[in-house]
């Protein structure tokens, strides 16, 4: 991802929002399609034809369960000059890749995807605001965008996404609700379950007016693949709640903040409760190491009574303990180039002010810049 901070301001009907997204980010969407179809083949043994045939089945599902999301995708396709099934494959790439990871995960190949996320309750923060923060680690070539969307039906949103993906995966809305995510792989992940896709859930979460509604979006029904969601909401000075929800295809588990903070990386806290076996492989060293480190940083600060500031949050996300498999993730040069992953974007959110600080690329090498909804 480039060092710039690309922000698209969008408004109107779902189709118009999608069309403008596609038109304004046409080259970035083209790049992402090239990256993902190449990666589908090289990393998940998924041919272009097979990916498209699975995307077609998901398009039917999305048309039925979330017609506004489907309309937005169709707008992206027209605006970017791409085929709708290619855009659908981009929007369900989580299901296409992660269900394949679960099937080939026991092979001796590294899958070093990951991210580190944490949230701190208002009582643990200098200004009394709920803070949510995350490093999103992924394929360096992926083109990312920030979407500032004025919705006709639902709260306005400010979120990070990949160019061409309708559902922002890290963000906040005008109701003071925020979302962080972590990818997880389990033995039961399967695209063929054909349930509500991950990015559709993220889109619906960010359009939720209440924490209760956002929780329902995550927990209701079965899921194709596992994932972790950290939700927070704060509207006024005396409010502020955070919940971490680990999800497997057939079960969910809620984790509460520990002494004012909660953190998560890319493994289940207790997979047995969720009835799954988790596929960690070589990623095990990275996710467990990053989890221990972010907990150490929280233990040495907010959990001993020291109030967190935005500068503290930035320093935590820039932490290099265990580099390259650190919170601030860097490419592991011992691996082939196509197997190197790193922090693509770093985000900090202040929910009651609807403000976000973001750094593209590794946050140790770029400055955070602010955005407001």
Give me the secondary-structure topology.
Elements: E1 7-12, H1 14-24, H2 26-44, H3 48-65, H4 67-80, H5 84-91, H6 93-104, E2 114-120, E3 131-138, E4 144-151, E5 157-162, E6 170-173, E7 177-183, H7 198-206, H8 211-219, E8 227-233, E9 241-248, E10 251-255, E11 261-264, H9 283-299, H10 310-317, E12 342-350, E13 355-360, E14 369-372
Parallel strand pairs: 1-4
Antiparallel strand pairs: 2-3, 2-11, 3-12, 4-5, 5-6, 6-7, 7-8, 8-9, 9-10, 12-13, 13-14
Could you give a quick summary of the protein structure above?
Helix content is 34%, strand content 24%. With 373 residues, the protein is of the alpha+beta class.
Q: What can you tell me about this protein's structure?
A:
This protein is α+β, with helices and mostly antiparallel strands and 373 residues long. Helices cover 34% and strands 24% of the residues. It has helices at residues 14-24, 26-44, 48-65, 67-80, 84-91, 93-104, 198-206, 211-219, 283-299, 310-317, and strands at 7-12, 114-120, 131-138, 144-151, 157-162, 170-173, 177-183, 227-233, 241-248, 251-255, 261-264, 342-350, 355-360, 369-372. A hairpin with a 5-residue loop joins strand 4 (144-151) and strand 5 (157-162). It is globular and about 55 Å long.
